[in-house]
Specification:
Order of helices and strands of chain B: HEEEEEEEEEEEE
Distance between the termini of chain B: 85 Å
Largest sheet of chain A: 5 strands, antiparallel
Strand content of chain B: 25-35%
Strand order of the largest sheet of chain A: 4-3-7-1-10
Oligomer: heterodimer
CATH topology of one domain in chain B: Jelly Rolls
Largest interface: A-B, 46 and 54 residues
CATH superfamily of one domain in chain B: Galactose-binding domain-like
Helix content of chain B: under 10%
Order of helices and strands of chain A: HHEEEEEEEEEEEEH
Largest sheet of chain B: 5 strands, antiparallel
CATH class of one domain in chain B: Mainly Beta
Shape of chain A: elongated
Radius of gyration of chain A: 21 Å
CATH architecture of one domain in chain B: Sandwich
CATH class of chain A: Mainly Beta
Number of strands of chain B: 12
Strand content of chain A: 35-45%
Number of strands of chain A: 12
Number of helices of chain A: 3
Radius of gyration of chain B: 24 Å
Number of domains of chain A: 1
Shape of chain B: elongated
Helix content of chain A: 10-25%
């Protein structure tokens, strides 16, 4: 009787370990972690006019696209997404251009952040870079560019893992270590 | 089927149903805003709506308090290793120092400027500390006490005047503290200024004393540091704003 009870405890323990590790990675990973945005602080010249955001990506996932934003924060909890742009297709490397906007940089009131959200936690969706086209004060019609590599972005919360795929990119991954809930 | 097996099957079905419901309700593929999926709370605190009532704003005519130094440094003496006082410096220009005083490609006109960074973009300087995003660009450590850091890139020769800390603070016992710290790459550090959150009323801001430091990018790296007094969401870093002057 005692021996049988010990086997059951062992089986339950193994099932619990599998549950704690496999279930978050599998069934509910998107619901729990896909809102974990990657971000990068940017600084643009005062008075410059933001016109475009170009997203450089790698996308081989036919079911989902990643999204990039330029977001402003005022330090008092208020947020405005100036524009967004999505990756397209599933043919691998590509780039996408946002709609044109005309936003005058106001560094006294706002801070400017580049955000990127992958909708899949694997290497099929990668951020390779972003490029902001802006016109400096007195720049006429000539664009200046702020061009950043994807590998300089980091997640907004430490509950997500990320990897470097090479070529200056970055992608989000699921928890892949033992007992993730205990570590995070 | 025995009653025991029935319970096991029932529990498994309930678990799968719950996980499916979470996924469907969350609808991660329908999100379009950078704040989707973030839990919002009732807004509390104070916001700066008057321009000119603080010393780091144009038009201010009140008293200016010059900093007398940082009382509590961002690094204790035990954190510092003993290194040779001067790394190899032979007093001659190296290739990356030639014409270091030249203007940048896009020179800024003389005047006051702001370097405003979101709290959400700062990261702990050791992986022992975990962090979580709150909302509105704010962040807090969820485990650990390491400082959060971000490079501070200012034009050569600019004068750093003030550091402003934007925070969310509902803790009656802990406050967050922000620093501007300079490193010389040879183990030497100096906290130029510090400013702490105050009160426990929610969102707010605090302005440092007058710094009056001239940026020297040849010899120092400039870093924004932030120390949260508690690893909880009751004290959050929402932003750091440096006011500097280009003569």
């Amino acid at each position: 009787m005692k021996q049988s009870f010990g086997w059951r405890i062992l089986v339950i323990g193994i099932l619990l370990a599998v549950l704690l590790n496999a279930v978050p990675v599998g069934t509910v990973k998107a619901a729990l972690t896909s809102y974990e945005i990657f971000s990068l602080q940017i600084h643009l010249p005062e008075g410059a006019e933001i016109e475009w955001l170009r997203l450089y990506f790698y996308d081989s996932n036919p079911d989902a696209n990643s999204t990039a934003w330029i977001t402003t924060y005022d330090g008092a909890g208020n947020t405005v997404d100036l524009l967004n742009v999505q990756s397209t297709g599933s043919a691998g490397y590509g780039e996408a251009l946002s709609p044109q906007i005309s936003h005058i940089v106001d560094n006294a009131s706002y801070t400017y952040v580049l955000n990127w959200r992958p909708y899949e936690l694997d290497g099929r969706q990668r951020l390779m870079g972003m490029r902001v086209a802006y016109i400096p004060v007195g720049g006429g019609i000539l664009y200046s560019y702020l061009h950043v590599a994807g590998c300089t972005f980091t997640p907004r919360s430490s509950t997500i893992e990320w990897r470097y795929p090479g070529s200056g990119g970055v992608y989000a991954t699921s928890w892949d270590h033992f007992l993730p809930f205990l570590r995070k | 089927m025995s009653a025991k097996r029935l319970w096991i099957v029932l529990a498994a079905v309930l678990l799968i149903a719950a996980l499916t419901a979470v996924t469907v309700i969350a609808d991660p593929f329908g999100w379009a805003s950078s704040e989707d999926g973030v839990e919002y709370e009732e807004w509390i605190g104070t916001v700066d709506t008057v321009i000119g009532d603080d010393p780091d704003e144009p038009g201010y005519t009140g008293e200016v308090v010059t900093s007398s130094g940082v009382l509590e440094p961002s690094e204790g003496p035990i954190d510092l290793e003993t290194l040779p006082a001067q790394p190899g410096s032979e007093g001659e220009l190296r290739p990356d120092e030639v014409n270091s005083e030249a203007l940048e490609a896009e020179p800024q006109l003389a005047g006051y400027y702001y370097d405003f960074s979101a709290g959400a973009t700062m990261r702990p300087r050791a992986s022992l500390t975990n962090w979580e995003y709150d909302s509105g660009g704010c962040i807090h450590p969820s485990k650990g006490y390491d400082l959060f850091t971000l490079p501070l890139d200012l034009p050569q020769g600019a004068s750093i005047d003030y550091l402003r800390l934007y925070f969310y603070d509902t803790s009656t016992t802990a406050n967050g503290t922000a620093f501007i710290t300079i490193y010389d790459g040879a183990g030497g550090i100096d906290d130029l200024i510090s400013v702490s959150s105050v009160g426990s009323a929610g969102y707010g801001y605090a302005v440092s004393d007058y710094v009056n430091h001239v940026v020297d990018n040849v010899n120092y790296a400039y870093v924004l540091n932030y120390s949260s007094g508690t690893p909880s969401s009751s004290v959050r870093l929402c932003g750091l704003r440096v006011m500097y002057y280009i003569p």
